Amino acid sequence: MELLITYILKGLQMYIFFCIVWVYSSIFVIFAADKTSTTMNKWIRRKRNSWGYGVQSPSDFYFVQHVLREKSPYYGYSEIEELKEKHSAHLPLYSEGINKLLFRLANYTQAKSIIEVGAGLSTYAMTLGRPSARCIAITSSEPCKRAMQSLLNEHPQVEIKKGDEMDVFCNLIQELGTIGLLHVAHTNHYREVIDAALPHVTDQSLIVIEDICSSKEKYDWWEELQKSSQTGITYDLGNIGLLFFNSSRHKNNYWINIRK
User: Going by C-beta distance under 8 Å and a sequence separation of 6 or more, which residues neighbour residue 207?
Assistant: First the structure.
């Protein structure tokens, strides 16, 4: 009996200790999140948002937990997992985790049109997530176009357009009128693409920008987009940026860790 009481008391001491640590760490997290951004503060803020802290809106919380960080399998995951086997030297390939995220984003937005500028295998992942959408892949590479035609021969709804990326993109958005889901992928014209796209966004639009940390210049540009009055809720996922444009929602910026 004495031994049992001793173990109980030690357990209570450990519990109280961890409660105190949790309280102090929470205070530190909240304090740090309000300070000028530094590498450490960004990391803390990213962890905080990823756990749901600071995500006040129920719809944003749902998006973080059930779209960005969703763990459950989807019907198209098995095909995405086979993408490595279909990889070609002419088709850029993101990680399996990124392709699954793009699948979920396409499924979540239910966009009528999906555009990928700087096409790669992620076009295939987004098509699986929203089979009924009109999907257009833009590339300046003839070998890339041929490789994609071979890969997507069972998906006739996917249009592969080759040419100058900006010329093709500008003509396309004039034809479509509005942006549904836009994936700015393997392209050096990311600034020009976004500048051309912004006049055509709606409350339902989503723009996904890859490799935002590929250079200091690009990340500085990304941070300007986050602050811009032209964007709404934004998500910084580490090396991926998401831009929403719902004008009825209060502007907010989130920093989230995802599984890559």
Answer: 179, 181, 182, 184, 194, 197, 201, 242, 243
Tell me if residue 189 falls in helix, strand or coil: coil
Those residues with Cβ within 8 angstroms of residue 139's Cβ, 6 or more apart along the chain or in another chain: 118, 119, 145, 148, 160, 161, 162, 165
CATH number at residue 225: 3.40.50.150
Pairing relation of β-strands 234-236 and 240-244? Answer: antiparallel
pLDDT in tens, 191-250: 999 999 999 999 999 999 999 999 999 999 999 999 999 999 999 998 899 999 998 988
Largest CA distance in the chain: 82
CA 57 to chain centre: 18
Number of compact structural domains in the chain: 1
Distance (Å, whole) CA 254 – CA 260: 18
Running DSSP on this structure, what letter comes out for residue 71? -
Torsional sign, CA 35, 31, 232, 65: positive
Tell whether 31 is covered by a domain: no
* pLDDT, tens only, 59-109: 888 898 889 988 888 888 888 888 777 666 667 778 888 999 999 999 999
Residue span of the structural domain in which 180 resides: 56-255
154-161: which pairs have CB atoms within 8 A and are 24 or more residues apart?
155/124, 155/127, 155/131, 157/127, 157/131, 157/132, 157/133, 158/123, 158/127, 159/134, 159/135, 160/119, 160/136, 161/136, 161/137
Q: In the block, which residue shows the tokens 């920093």?
A: 255
